[in-house]
Amino acid sequence: METSAKRAALVAVDLGAQSCRVSLLRWKQGQPQMQVMHRFPNGPIATQDGLRWDIGRILDGVKDGLRLCADAAAEGIASVGVDGWAVDYLRLDENGDPLADPFCYRDERTQRAEKKVHEIISPSRLYSLTGIQLLGLNTLYQLYADKLAGGRPGTFWLNLPEYVTYRLGGHRVAEYTNATHTQLVRLGGQEWCEEIFESLGLDISAAPKIVPTGSIVGSIGGDLAKLTALGGTKLIVPACHDTASAIAAIPASGEDWAFISSGTWSLVGTVLKSPCVGDEAREMNFTNLGGAGRSICFLKNVNGMWLLRQYMDEWEERGSAISLSALLQECEALPAPDYLIDVDDPPLTRPGGTLGKINAQLQRAGRRTFSAESRNIPVIANLIFHGMAERYAEVLRSIATITGKRLKRLFIVGGGGKNFLLNRLTAERTGLEVLLGSTESTTLGNFAIQMATLQGSWNETTGVAASAVARWAEEIAEPVFEEARNRETV
Fold first, then answer.
1. Which of 78, 176, 362, 377 sits 20 to 30 Å CA-CA off 144?
2. Is residue 101 annotated as part of the catalytic site, yes or no?
3. Catalytic residue from among 14, 242, 279, 344
4. Chosen domain end from 390, 414, 436
């Protein structure tokens, strides 16, 4: 296999809650060319014992994608990196096999666990220990839910991207950025917080070792290693938290910018050099997600495209399917609503009954509600779009207040950046210059981190250097995403 990292190909696996993709990066005439080789749908499955992910189907899809990449890359594949959504995990038996399909973070089992945890450790203490946004879906509450359900103590666990990496031949580890979002890592450190594990009676020995972003954690094994292009291919943990990979790929400098990583969730934030955990940050429930190069992605989760997808799926079940493009055109012709719904209302973050939940919110506010007639489809969607844009603006105003930053630019990356109406409303509500980044920014960041590691910009303390990741993201993006990067501002 070609040993030069600049000549051999790279593969990025991006696990999404609604769809997953396997992408190949190759060099032709010295220029990087990225191609999505395989996409496959994903989504939680309602079972008798809760909402779960079909991990076997996910693994099969990843392996199918790797085979397609191996067939295409005669020059060989230098490395593979897997990123994905955070907080969900698998419990493993003594042989390293899953005890069951993993729970989905939207399962309602954590509601009781969250209350119990806060009876033992106050929310303010949790925040001071970890700097992570209090969300009932976090790994912390899920692990405690396992305990309440009588789960076997000491059973080893791995978050999803790291589990897939492990099944491909890697070591059992937790990558730094993904580990921070569990709400179990000591603030500002790279180790598990012993106080939390001890207070809650959780077994810290069942937690994987935390490794820096960009670490080489093994090589492709099993039948895949028999494929010529994958023989000796390294497994590199990028920023396994997909948002951290996406942010690493943003082509920005200076202190006047913020970002929205727009997908299933909308992650609204800015990049800091150190955690921000003052009273205002805690009261407004911001998170200090670990980033590439040990930076801090200071952000807040906002209900994202998942809410819109739920809404559209419900109308399809009623026999009134509508495409997103048609829906956007109809909404654009409508006036701004006289009431803005709260898209982060807790019921709207759980599956099912979206129309009823929106009507309940409207009723509580003394506003008119809407019947389940097809003529109301764009009217209610318009409420969602305006509500999302206003929520973005609220969060960004809070960021400016807490950090003291004078924000001027807003980078929107991820698949939600295709939503021209939401982009326009966001520009209007925030008053910021909105710049549209790559819709595949997570994959771009994944590749950039792999390249930084392969070219020697990694150390065991901070992992990959953020500056090296930025340079590689710029180089890869130049020919690959020229059109996206040069779209006019909103």
1. 176
2. no
3. 242
4. 436
